[in-house]
Amino acid sequence: MQLTDQEFQLIRNLVYKNFGINLGEKKRNLIIARLQKVLLAGGFSSFGRYYEHVIQDTSGRALLTLVDKISTNHTYFFREKDHFDFLKTRILPNLKKEYKGAWRKVRIWSAGCSTGEEPYTLAMVLSEYFRAYPAGIDVAILATDISVTALRAAVRGIYPAAKMAPVPMTYRQRHFSPLKDGNWAVKQNLKDMVLFRRLNLMSRRFQFKGLFQVIFCRNVMIYFDRATQKELIARFHRYTEPGGYLIIGHSETIDRESGLYKYIKPSVYQKV
């Protein structure tokens, strides 16, 4: 089905206005490929007709389906492993020192969690780290994404064997259960550490009760333009504990002149 220039601009502007995602010309074929089945299933004769349906749907479900279809959910366990090593060797020991050796709440936010590999990796790292400490340490991970489909897969917590390759065997045996079909299921004790919620990062305010010591938002801001990135980083700053960390993707950067976070190492920043 053909996507005219006008239809492309209408859909592009709609997505940018509501979700901050900047769909450049290179994404044109992606839109066609991802939305054609939706158009056929809904009986829409053109992308223009489909656009009208989305903006007229007062329930908002059509808009959610749209962003769900165009979202990219590429992720895997222990992606950019040095971030998890930094968490284990630098951030957590520093938190303990700051709390004078007495652990209190540890809160981490996985923003743009996709199908769950990142927050479950965080849960494994934290679980392993705190094995040496007495039970009762209050550790929680908030995992959010815009895609309902991705979140459903994350909550389900079942992954094919090919996805498990980066997970060390000791972690795999401790935190996953093998299934008869060859897949692996996340064990309940690991699931209990993660709270999955749908969240639009373009929301002006996030309804969080507290602050986070660490925010992971990796390979998400590459889909935003500079103005949107700046707004999002300011919102992250509001929800980062003093001295807390923001960890982004290796292909992403933060304006060091903003005065919000100081540079620690590539893709790792600390709240000023």
Describe the model.
The protein has helices spanning 5-19, 28-42, 47-56, 61-70, 81-98, 117-129, 148-156, 169-175, 188-191, 226-238; strands at residues 106-111, 139-145, 158-159, 176-178, 184-186, 194-198, 212-217, 240-248, 261-265, 268-271. The chain is α/β, with parallel strands linked by helices and 272 residues long. The chain has two domains: 5-70, Chemotaxis receptor methyltransferase CheR, N-terminal domain (Chemotaxis Receptor Methyltransferase Cher, domain 1, Orthogonal Bundle); 81-271, Rossmann fold (3-Layer(aba) Sandwich). A seven-stranded mixed beta sheet has the order 6-2-1-7-8-10-9. The protein is globular and about 60 Å long.
CATH superfamily label of the largest domain: Vaccinia Virus protein VP39
Number of helices: 10
Largest sheet: 7 strands, mixed
Range of strand content = 15-25%
The CATH architecture category of the largest domain equals 3-Layer(aba) Sandwich
Shape: globular
Distance between the termini: 51 Å
| Element-level helix/strand string | HHHHHEHEHEHEEHEEHEEE
Record the strand order, biggest sheet.
6-2-1-7-8-10-9
Mean of pLDDT: 92
Helix content class: 40-55%
Q: How is the quaternary structure best described?
A: single chain
CATH class of the largest domain: Alpha Beta
Low-confidence blocks of residues: none
Total number of domains: 2
Rounded radius of gyration (Å): 20 Å
